[in-house]
Amino acid sequence: MRFPRGRVTANGQQFSFERFQVVQNHHNAAATFDIMIPLFAPNPQDWTWWARETDIEVEISVGFADPKSGQVASWTSLIVGPVEGIAMAPLAYGPHSSLAMRARTEIGRVGMLPHEDSPPHPEGAVLQVRGRDYAGQLIDSQVNAQYEAGTLTSSDVAQQIVGQVPQLTLDLSAAGDGIGDPINSLQGRTILHRSAWDTLCALAAHEGCRVRVKGRTVYFTQLQASDASGAYKIWYIPAKDGKGPWSNCKTLRMARALSLAKGIDQFVHSYDSATGRKASRAVAKVRSSSRASRSTEGQATSYQSFSHNIPGMTQEQVMKHATNRAGELAKFERDIEFQVPGDPSLTVDGTITLSGTGTDFDQSYDVDQITHTYEMARGYDMEVRGKNMSKDVNISTEDIS
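^ that's the sequence the OP posted. Answer follows.
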């Protein structure tokens, strides 16, 4: 028996709530939160505080209570970030009133609304609080800087950019040796009118890394292949003899992009940013071995073609970047979505395995997005989306300079 508990704090003070939803993303996007709070419930601060304050930091956590003591031994933080907007509905209202219609549009419907002919009472009054994690601060800030070749390392540039947001620190301990390599003679460039987040993501891709924001820390992590060991397991048993089907998830959806399944050619070109002269080129080819064995001899085959231009990369970096980018694109071939009871141990850096369908969808997937939803009336659930290429896909990279 599970006893999930949720906790919402604003500037360190705990608030009661009706519902919260946290959306965590795997691929270069900010996490978001949306909270519904009873407007007139006893809380550390009343609605006048919410109407006045502009600097509010929210943290949302989940945990599981001991069935005997009712206490939560440890909390798992789902998101930390600044509030970016609020909406209030201080009057109770009927389901067909204009206020009710507008409130559903702006702040959503929470619980049961009172009947239209019921007298007003404060129990239906709600406050919506929404925002993003601290990646939003980097998304909203621009970089206008010139980085001189040979005088800085990639980690120096990342430190300068993250240093613009005083709430954040940078952790490069898991990034590998490449992140500290000196910028080579072709890499001096000026970055104008580009968000700090896009610049960090481009720098990370340049080094074969990915950017993560956890709490108040920005991490550069290495791109890694799916690892089925220790994966979150989803199983399915088809119906038989008029009984079933069975599964450990509430809903399950599987999809495949056939255009990507036919193959991908990812070209990466680099050039001297001072002269514009092309310096290095590579193509990464994504191919399915089973599709190749089924293709008719002499039959023309078309592949999805993508091209990416990046200044100041060596041939080795171009080859690595082409391979990484092709692999990321190929993972959009297959995706699964499912709903299960909430489990904060599954993160956007995790892996899922699906089994039992008897189809090619039975394989491992990288987590792409997790939506945590906690409602006081319904409990704690999460919706998960995973993606990956087929198991028989191979990536080969060629120097075409």
